[in-house]
Design brief:
The protein has 800 residues and is mostly helical. Helices cover 70% and strands 1% of the residues. The chain is built from 37 helices and two strands. The protein has a two-stranded antiparallel ribbon. α32 packs antiparallel against α33.
């Protein structure tokens, strides 16, 4: 039999090797893509990723789809047709989503875009989609687009049916569904949800941007840049305006007609359309010569009175200008902000630092860059609050329920719980390594459940057994719900199943708190006495209940499933993750410290119990892994805005490895140390398993043999007869199986006098093969007087 240290080292090495992400070729290539120059991207990285995608690598396929949408020029011309063919042949409706995104990068044919969008909805993509108005200029409002596209009742019904399937999982489909129902006069409540999401977006902006300190409203630069009056136009819904028409084919002709008679928003919309920026503003503000020639006249026409057109006109010119020309056109940018278009101020702090640099250069003689950033932060904040109020008033949402002021507080971050769109393709399998990791988590989780059963069955009346059983069972649930869901197929149904599994997560955390305290209370230490005090035993779990309840009411789900590039995964809200990681880490420190103290006392008294030794070994082994994982979560959620996929992978693998090692050492301990009489319970379970395997194995073997040579009917009859024969000899088979298992797992302990007495009486009673009711009463009376547990009785009777 393996020594304890050998088993420990073997498990560490084998599990970490199995979970090692270093062999992930596609991930390495993706990292290389971002560090390589354009020549290496085109000649090496993209072709290599394409080969992996053609071989079925889901991560490579997902990344290529993103490159196809956002970095199309980086794809070698010779590879474009192959990538399009790959998407069309393998990904079904998702290829429509990709091509629809790419269609928006030119002068989109709106009717073609509508057809592609209907197919894309099968993958829960909304095209055109909602854009984050703090990070990017919002352009086309999809509700405006689909209101025209779905003019007749059949189209509307078909589109809404697709939206409904996705609306519970992806915020863009949820927003679109609520807006279209609002326009149809059927629903208004969903708009409040979007207002909450926009409100939460501000909180995310504060956490992730360089937004450090908002300038005082009386700061000279803030007064200079701030608009005299806030705009009354709702930019959050998009700056592209659709005219009132009956079909999408009429949109551009009608915009032209409206623009020529002085409609400023129509002119702006045509400029956006012809500039190829119907989806977003390019990262370097550059457009092609043809796009510039077509778009600039329309922006020039509107710029005199439209701050949005001023900004677009500035960025068109900026992308083509040298350093001298950039200083000459800078006033267009400043005027757009001063006249109420606040979004460039937000972009300057997050995604477009060039904007902040241009404004800093304009005022560098009098103000530092920090002062400029603070002034822009004030403009961004006030402009966004104004937009939230405009949104609430225009959509009919109850703005009184929201804190739309400079002192805005925490709000429901449901936007974090609903990804913008899936990044894997429904109908495909998750990545094989991801499935393997999920399978390991399921195995360990079910193993924990089995250990919990054995521990409880050994002595149901023992408080320690109850505590250990509950801990094992609930920690098994954590493995199944957090990582085991990775084996589920890529589908909306899997998201629903995962969400259902995770719905009891807060309850499980309360249960774990109670179980940890119960376990501590079984030790004869000062900490054990405190843990058993009602104020602690019930007070701390009650605190967890209160926290979870307040969190759910105030912020929404703290844990939720989503699809990453590998398959189905979970995500935590940072505050929620930090609280429970700290809770678990605190309990692990207390339990390990308490076990160390108990071991020290018992060793000093030269009376070290086997259970103390093995508990300590198991917890010590797990402590390294759990501390690394939980402390890592606390550090990341406190001090970092982003966690890389490699770090997530490392934390996940460490957690699973720690739990697997803990479970293995715990099982080793209860077998080696004969804790709770579990060894005999294991033997009894193995005997039952052997009988069941023989029963079904005999049936299928005989049925298959006879069916192959005679008929299916005769085969079924032969199989049933053979299984019945095995069942008839169940007693002698069980006895023989117990004897064989006893050779493999011999009992090191000797029966007590009470057990020997009961064994002798039971042998007499069963000698004729039948135990009469009177004999059973006699045996029960004997067992009660001998103080034998149910587990001891079962083991003795199973061995006969």
């Amino acid at each position: 039999m393996l020594k304890l240290r050998e088993l420990f080292l073997f498990l560490i090495v084998s599990i970490l090797v199995a979970c090692d992400p270093s062999a992930d070729d596609s991930t390495a290539l993706i990292d290389r893509f971002f560090t390589a120059d354009q020549s290496e991207q085109e000649s090496v990285v993209i072709p290599s990723l394409l080969n992996l995608a053609l071989a079925g690598d889901n991560v490579a396929s997902v990344f290529l789809s993103e490159v196809f949408v956002y970095e199309y020029d980086a794809i070698p011309i010779g590879s474009r047709a192959q990538i399009e063919s790959l998407f069309l042949s393998n990904n079904g409706p998702n290829s429509a989503a990709l091509f629809a995104y790419h269609e928006l990068d030119g002068e989109p044919n709106f009717q073609e875009l509508s057809d592609l969008s209907m197919s894309a909805l099968d993958q829960c993509f909304v095209i055109p989609g909602y854009w984050l108005p703090l990070y990017q200029t919002p352009t086309i409002n999809p509700a405006d687009f689909f209101s025209i596209a779905w003019r007749n009742a059949d189209q509307f019904s078909q589109g809404m049916e697709k939206l409904k399937k996705c609306a519970d999982y992806y915020n863009e489909t949820r927003w679109l569904e609520s807006e279209l129902l609002l326009r149809a006069g059927e629903q208004t409540s969903g708009i409040s949800g979007r207002l909450s999401d926009l409100d939460a977006l501000w909180q995310e902006f504060l956490r992730n941007s360089t937004f450090n300190k908002v300038a005082d409203e009386n700061h000279p630069l803030a007064r200079t840049l701030s608009p005299v009056n806030q705009t009354t136009e709702l930019y959050l819904d998009g700056v592209f305006t659709f005219p009132v028409v009956d079909s999408l084919d009429e949109v551009i002709p009608q915009l032209r007609a409206d623009a020529l008679v002085g409609d400023i928003r129509a002119s702006r919309s045509l400029g956006i359309y012809y500039s190829g920026q119907s989806r977003w503003v390019g990262p370097d503000f550059s457009v092609g010569p043809t796009q510039y020639e077509k778009a600039s006249p329309w922006f020039e026409l509107a710029a005199e009175s439209d701050p949005v057109s001023k900004f677009y006109l500035w960025q068109l010119k900026f992308g083509r200008a040298d350093s001298v020309e950039k200083s000459q056109i800078r006033q267009l940018l400043i005027d757009s902000i001063q006249e109420g278009f606040f979004i460039p101020a937000c972009m300057a702090l997050v995604s477009r630092p060039e904007i902040g640099e241009q404004i800093s250069e304009e005022y560098e003689e009098n103000y530092s860059r920090i002062e400029v950033a603070s002034a822009l932060a004030l403009i961004c904040r006030d402009g966004y609050f104004n937009q939230l109020n405009l949104f609430a008033n225009e959509k009919g949402a109850d703005s009184n329920q929201k804190s739309l002021s400079a002192a805005i507080g925490l709000s429901n971050p449901s936007i974090l719980n609903f990804p913008r769109h899936p990044i894997v393709y429904f109908g495909q399998d998750a990545k094989s390594e991801y499935i393997a990791k999920g399978a390991i988590a399921i195995f360990v989780g079910l193993f924990f459940a089995y250990l919990a059963f054995l521990t409880f069955e050994a002595n149901p009346s023992s408080r320690k057994n109850k505590a250990i059983s509950l801990i094992l069972l609930l920690e098994g649930y954590l493995l199944l719900s957090m990582f085991g869901i990775g084996v589920l197929p890529v589908s909306l149904a899997s998201l629903g199943m995962a969400r259902m599994m995770l719905s009891i997560f807060p309850i499980v955390m309360v249960g774990l708190t109670f179980a940890y305290l119960m376990f501590l209370s079984t030790t004869e230490t000062q900490l054990g006495k405190y843990s058993f005090h009602p104020a602690v035993r019930y007070g701390l779990p009650f605190f967890v209940v209160i926290y979870s309840t307040v969190y759910f009411i105030s912020w929404g789900y703290g844990i939720f499933p989503f699809f990453n590039g590998d398959g189905l995964a979970i995500n935590f809200d940072p505050r929620f993750a930090r609280f429970f990681a700290a809770l678990l880490l605190g309990f692990h420190v207390l339990i390990l410290g308490n076990l160390l103290y108990v071991f020290y006392v018992e060793r000093r008294e030269k009376a070290v119990k086997a259970e103390t030794k093995f508990y300590l070994a198991a917890y010590s082994a797990r402590f390294f892994f759990m501390t690394f994982t939980l402390a890592g979560i606390i550090f990341i959620t406190t001090f970092q805005d982003y966690v890389s996929s490699a770090t997530q992978e490392l934390l996940t693998n460490t957690f699973i490895a720690g739990e697997a090692i803990y479970g293995s050492l715990f099982a080793y301990g209860i077998l080696q140390g004969e804790l709770f009489g579990v060894r005999r319970l294991v033997k009894k379970g193995l005997v039952k398993l052997i009988v069941i395997l023989m029963l079904f194995g005999t049936y299928y073997l005989i049925e298959d043999l006879v069916s192959e040579n005679f008929s299916d009917l005769l085969g079924n009859l032969a199989g049933l007869c053979s299984a019945a024969l095995v069942f008839a000899f169940e007693k002698p088979i069980s006895k023989k199986a117990f004897q064989i298992i006893d050779l493999v797992l011999p009992d090191d302990s000797i029966d007590s006098d009470a057990e020997e007495a009961y064994r002798y009486l039971y042998g007499l009673a069963i000698e004729d093969g039948i135990i009469t009711p009177n004999e059973r009463l006699m045996l029960e009376f004997t067992a009660e007087n001998l103080n034998l547990s149910r587990a001891q009785i079962g083991i003795i009777e199973a061995s006969k």
